[in-house]
Every structure is written in structure tokens, then in C-alpha cells.
């Protein structure tokens, strides 16, 4: 998105269509003078008329970009962020024992999550939260990423799925973020990365929890993990455990995050890599005046070269 420090200056762009109209009127007027062999044809051969039009178009583009530069544009760009907090929230319900993802959903999730944590910038705080019927903070926000990976390695299964509780507990974990010595009064940006293979069967609504995350400006990146054919065996009976993508998509939409899907260990690794590239950056406003001024100068030079090649003035 582009903002302008002096937006009123953009009214100067209204002169562009006026100049275009004047150019067309003058060109038509000269073309009608002196019959079939008019002044314009003597100056500009018929087969080079296109070059004149191109030169005029380039000059107008130069005026447009220079006007934009005059209005002092600023544009948000992504730069590597030096600090932040990532809450890695993982579903450990019994459905994570399904083997549709080899060797099973939980073991593959552990490997991918550990790789994700190891790739997070060193100054970032990392927290680990798990949820099944209840949710728990295994590791409060810390820059000791080794503690986070150790907690992930030791995840254990439990019954039920409480996605909403997992989100609320993740938000509570953010209350434990240690203050930044350089910016003690400014909390670092935070995000929740939530992986689940099911839908809520217990606890508070995931949508309500996502709304609270939106209020606290904590986007949630959800990962719908597993396939439609997943199942677990309970007392010798196969129980289907398909992924509920709709609920996780809704959580991401409400909170302002993004929703991902992974149906294999390889896809899950790719998803974590994509999220890693997003959470490791932040958008900051930067003045873009020089960029637009440079473009205006470039178009002006091209237009001048066109005039020189025509060896004639414009109408």
C-alpha cells in the first residue's frame, strides 16, 4: 500500500488528460493543413509517426511519476525483524496417532516443528503450548530455543480436542514475554502458529478465541494437518479422524492470520518454511520518493532520445 505525505499535490495529475487532449487536437489540426502533403508529414515521415507517439507517451509517463515523487510517497516494505514472539501451539489429541502421515501425525509434526523452531531468529522468544481436552504452556516465551525443541520432542497424546482452549492458553503465554531491555515499554510483535488435525470437541469456541487474538493483534497461522482418510483404532475399532479445515480457516480469517494445509510430512515441512519466512519479517514504512523520481528521469531521457531521433519538435 502506498501513502503520500502531501496527497493534495496529486491533483496536479489532473493536467495529464488535458495535455493528452491538447496533443491530439494539435496533431489533428496540423495534419489537416496543406492538404495531403502537410507540414507534419514533411517534418515527420509517415512511417515514423509511431515514434512520435511513443515519445509523447514517455514524456507523459515522466510527468506522472515525477508528480507522484513530488507528493512524497511512502510504501510498506518487509524487512527482517530483530525481535518478536512465536507461540508454537500443537494439537496432541489421540487423533494425532493416525498413520495417514508416516510414521504418524504426531511424530511427523514433531520433526517439522523442531526444524521450524531452529530456523526462528535467535532474538525471538519461542513458547510451546499443547492442547487436547485441556491446554498447557510447556515452555513460556524464551530465547532458549533448545528448551522449546526439547519440549516438542517429548509431546504425549491425550483425549479430546480443545482448539479454543489452545488459543486462549497461547494468548496467556504471551503475558509472560520478558521485557526487551532496549524497548521495555513496547511489547514485541507476536504470532501464534497452531497445528491441528481435528475439530473442537471440548472447551470454549475457537471462533471466540480467535476474536480475542484479533483484539490483542496476534494473528494466528493455522495448519490443517492430515488427510480425509485418517483413522485411529480404539478398542479394536477403526474411528475416522478427518481434518476439519473449515474451523481452522475461520480461526485464521478472524484473527488476521493465514490458513495452511498439509497432508504429508513433506508438505508440513514446506508449510512451516513458508510461515517462517512470514514471521521473520515485519512491514515498515519507507519513503519511496527517490524511486519515483528516478523512474521519471528514466522516462524523460527516453522521451528526449525519441525527439532527437525525430529531429523535430512536437506539435
Structure description:
This protein has 315 residues and is of the alpha/beta class. It has two domains: 2-76 and 286-310, no CATH class; 82-279, Rossmann fold, CATH 3.40.50.410. 43% of the residues lie in helices and 21% in strands. It contains ten helices and eleven strands. The protein has helices at residues 15-31, 39-43, 49-70, 105-118, 145-153, 163-174, 206-215, 245-255, 265-279, 289-310; strands at 2-4, 73-80, 85-91, 125-131, 135-142, 190-196, 220-225, 231-234, 237-240, 259-262, 281-287. The chain has a six-stranded mixed β-sheet, with helices on both faces. The protein has a three-stranded antiparallel β-sheet with strand order 1-2-11. A two-stranded antiparallel sheet has the order 8-9. Helix 7 (206-215) links the parallel strand 6 (190-196) and strand 7. Helix 4 (105-118) runs antiparallel to helix 5. 35% of the residues are buried. It comes from Auraticoccus monumenti.
Which tags fit this structure?
Rossmann fold, 2 domains, three-stranded antiparallel β-sheet, 10 helices, 21% strand, UPF0353/GerABKA_families, transmembrane helix, vWFA_dom_sf, Ca-activated chloride channel family protein
Provide a concise account of the structure shown:
This is Ca-activated chloride channel family protein. InterPro entries: UPF0353/GerABKA_families, VWF_A, vWFA_dom_sf. This protein is of the alpha/beta class and 315 residues long.
List the helices and strands and how they pair.
Blueprint: E1 2-4, H1 15-31, H2 39-43, H3 49-70, E2 73-80, E3 85-91, H4 105-118, E4 125-131, E5 135-142, H5 145-153, H6 163-174, E6 190-196, H7 206-215, E7 220-225, E8 231-234, E9 237-240, H8 245-255, E10 259-262, H9 265-279, E11 281-287, H10 289-310
Parallel strand pairs: 3-4, 3-6, 6-7, 7-10
Antiparallel strand pairs: 1-2, 2-11, 4-5, 8-9
Helix pairs in contact: 3-10, 4-5, 4-9, 6-7, 7-8
